[in-house]
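Re-run requested by the PI after the first attempt was lost when the workstation crashed. Everything re-entered from the original request form. Ligand of interest: iron/sulfur cluster.
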Amino acid sequence: MSFKKDYFEIRLESIGGLGANLAGKILGEYGALYLGLNASSFSSYGSEKRGSPVKAYIRYAKENIPIRVNSPVQTPDILGIFHIALADKENVMAGVSENTAVVVNTDKEADEVRDILKMYGGKLYCVDALNIALETKSRVNMVMLGAIAKTNDFMCIEKLEQAIKDTIGKKYPKALEQNLNAIRRGYENVKCKEIKPDDKYDYIVAKDIERAWGYKNAPIGGINPCFGSSISNDISASREGYVPIFIKDKCINCGLCDSTCPDIAFQFVKGEYKGKESMVNLGIDYHHCKGCMRCTQICPTNALEPKLEKDVNIFKQHIRNKDLIVDKLDFEKVGASSFVTSESYKEDTNI
Ligand code: SF4
Ligand code: SF4
């Protein structure tokens, strides 16, 4: 069984940390070695930091048709969206037509997802990949692979499972069972809804993003006011389902979380603890936290608890921190939230 056109193209839209790059590589190998197709795959991403946008492209062609195209997939037959927060990002839904299968990691119903994505038409496949990944102790990418295999009749799930056994199984044998479980659950639990194009949303034409800045047209002084992981940059999509919650009363200000956190998310200021001068932990700046949970593992007093992000209003945590801080740190307001600025963090710890 195969597809009717010369090429069959897949685009995965993700953010660093969810495994889209690996999923793309697996799909490439799977096409070439297990489906008897010609196949190519490559990814494009920025920095290695979790949360940066990642796109993976996979192209299949029938055995007698060589793949001579090596450009990004603009009109995908399958579009995999690894995080619903990517919905409003430019170009994510580009090229989606009534012939596209859109596979989304979401716990929402199809009608709501269509509106979030502003989807023109096609088949919408919704799968709660995050929860399945947590339950099976696997990763979002494995669940998405299973769901992707359900979208057509040539991507055989048994062959995909064999591909996983031969690749991931050899590299990480202890994790094989849970990964196979996640793939099967993705395949069996994905729900499909056909969406007929109507007047609700327009077809989005894929276009290349022009980079506005370069050496010659950088702002005077050469500064970049839109740096990553800044106060204006929502990196909630980079967290894999959990966030640490700071419980002030349990904290002994030992600083282990601060030296462990790779993203300098903790806010320490000069203060007093048990009647002595000390650096005092005020909590977490969630605009910098990528949800790796290392701090919760290192904290000796359980003052940092992992919670499901969907159950926590992150911005309430910021406001709670603000109430604790009194006059030590400066806050800025954006929309309904307020938060600790990284500038005041630096000032206060340089004392
Ligand atoms: S590791 Fe735990 S106890 Fe130590 S400063 Fe951080 S939150 Fe407080
Ligand atoms: S989970 Fe903890 S260690 Fe990881 S980035 Fe967030 S605050 Fe830092």
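Saved to the shared folder this time. Residues 244, 260-261, 263, 265, 284, 289-295 surround iron/sulfur cluster (ligand 2) (CB under 6 Å).
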